[in-house]
Amino acid sequence: GGDHTITYPILQAMAEKHGSVGLVHVDAHTDTGDKALGEKIYHGTPFRRCVEEGLLDCSRVVQIGIRGSSYDPDPYEYCREQGFRVVPAEECWRKSLVPLMEEVRKQMGDKPVYISFDIDGIDPAYAPGTGTPEIAGLTPAQALEIIRGCKGLNVVGCDLVEVAPMYDVSGNTALLGANLLFEMLCVLPGVKTT
Length: 194
Hints:
The chain is an alpha/beta fold. The protein has a single domain (4-187), classed as Ureohydrolase domain (Arginase, Chain A, 3-Layer(aba) Sandwich). It has six helices and five strands; from the N terminus they run H-E-H-E-H-E-H-E-H-E-H. A five-stranded parallel β-sheet has the order 3-2-1-4-5, sandwiched between helices. The longest helix has 15 residues, at 172-186.
């Protein structure tokens, strides 16, 4: 729960224990802005703050499902300059993400990894209950492929953010969010799922 700002202090705590971590980040937005309305800490800046503090192993950051509006002509430039792998939503359309996650597992290796999942990474047809919905997103099946594709990684923590149930009278967003978080718990090291 909460907005994506919560990931910043969580990753500060993770770094105290594990050093810089890899990141599997599912989102419609990169959340690497510098500031908004004069503020440097808000839900669109956490990963820039994390880079500045050395909390992320930038060679092991992948952002999946990125799309939507931006204030910059090249909204992914900052991410690529840091060494992030950016997988725009259009590269995910109409296909399984199992092959992508095989590549991600190789990229992450056996070092600590954090999963951060913004519900707006999912298309608003399935998850309208969020503050910044963007069309043409991932499907719930693709979300499961991403999360289940993290099994075997050294996952040290995870979050699921930006669920706003009051924007979805059907309750589907909350249901999807709860199921995705359950799936994340199932890929933690040592969890038996069979």
